[in-house]
Amino acid sequence: MEVESVLVTGANRGIGFEFVKQLLRLPKPPHYVFATYRDEKRTQALEEVKEAYKQTQVVLIKMDIEKTNEIEKTKKKIVEESLVIRTKSFD
Ligand SMILES: NC(=O)c1ccc[n+]([C@@H]2O[C@H](COP(=O)([O-])OP(=O)(O)OC[C@H]3O[C@@H](n4cnc5c(N)ncnc54)[C@H](OP(=O)(O)O)[C@@H]3O)[C@@H](O)[C@H]2O)c1
Question: Which Pfam families would you find in this protein's record (predicted)?
Fold first, then answer.
């Protein structure tokens, strides 16, 4: 599997967290993994994998899938972050 970017919701624990780790361990990992959580107090495990796998830009985003405004903010953040990363890669 070879992908450019992936959005994983509920990424701070359970199957979502495991999915993030498996993506980062791929022989050709994605350039970006957008990983969502709901509670800032429960992001430690995600922060640790973000630090451990520098090949991928892991972007943590607060999002409850039942909150439309947070979905909209997430959409905006993904576009903005991707543009920043792309700009940097062309420097
Ligand atoms: N585990 C399995 O082997 C397995 C197998 C097949 C299917 N599934 C299905 O896959 C899903 C996840 O399973 P799991 O075992 O990973 O469950 P889990 O350990 O309870 O984790 C659920 C994740 O979803 C997040 N979440 C819950 N409600 C959310 C919402 N409204 N908006 C955004 N994120 C939300 C949780 O965030 P918080 O930490 O903030 O609560 C947590 O990160 C379930 O539907 C389960 O039935 C699981």
Answer: adh_short
Atom 20 of ligand 1: nearest residue by CA position: 14
* Cα 59 to middle of ligand 1, angstroms: 19
State the pLDDT at residue 83: 73
Q: Does the CB atom of residue 4 touch ligand 1 within 6 A? A: no
User: How far is Cα of residue 75 from the mean position of the Cα atoms in its chain?
Assistant: 12
Q: Identify the CA nearest to 85 among candidates 28, 31, 29.
A: 31
What is this structure's pTM?
0.90
Share of the chain above pLDDT 70, in %: 90
Q: Is the CB of 13 under 6 A from ligand 1?
A: yes
